[in-house]
Amino acid sequence: MFENLLKLVQENAGEAIIRNPAIPDAQNNAAVELAGNGIADHLKGLAANGGIEKVIAMFNGGEGKQAEISAIGSNVAGSLMKQFGISNEAAGNIVQNLIPKVMDQFVSKTNDPNDKSFDLQDIIGSISGGSAGAGGVMDVFKKLF
Q1: Considering the entire predicted model, what is its pTM?
Q2: Contact by Cβ (8 Å): 123, 110
């Protein structure tokens, strides 16, 4: 799942990172990886704090999706400023042009039965460290639906 997420970030990183003068060309891959890890780390954090329902709701278009995208963006922006020494404005522009697009595509691909690159049950298992196992994930699904 994380490999596919990094590919998705890279596919959308053109204006936000690759052609952005705030990020040196030699650091493009590191910035892409930082953004992908920021998304994954946020989802893992939600799962670790009992928020698997929030993750599932986010992938099903439920309430809180925009708040989670905003939180991911804030975390990624902070990491970009720290790692690359860029301004708050430059980091904000990067996340505004990248994170919502990536998350919309991530959710769309997860919900597309013809796209096998992302599967919600696999995502939940990955971010929960397997602690939600098949039975645990199914229990969460039953509660939600």
Answers
A1: 0.83
A2: yes
φ/ψ of 143, rounded to 5, equals -65, -40
Average pLDDT across each block of 10 residues of the chain; the chain has 145 residues. List them in order.
90 95 96 95 87 83 84 96 96 96 92 86 79 44 41
In the numeric block, the tokens 């970030």 are attached to: 9
Q: Report the distance separating Cα 142 and Cα 145, nearest Å.
A: 5
Number of domains in the chain: 1
- Please tell me the number of Cα atoms within 13 Å of 83 on its side-chain side: 19
Domain that includes residue 118, residue range: 2-144
**H helix runs in the chain, sequence order:** 2-12, 28-48, 52-59, 65-84, 88-111, 120-127, 134-144
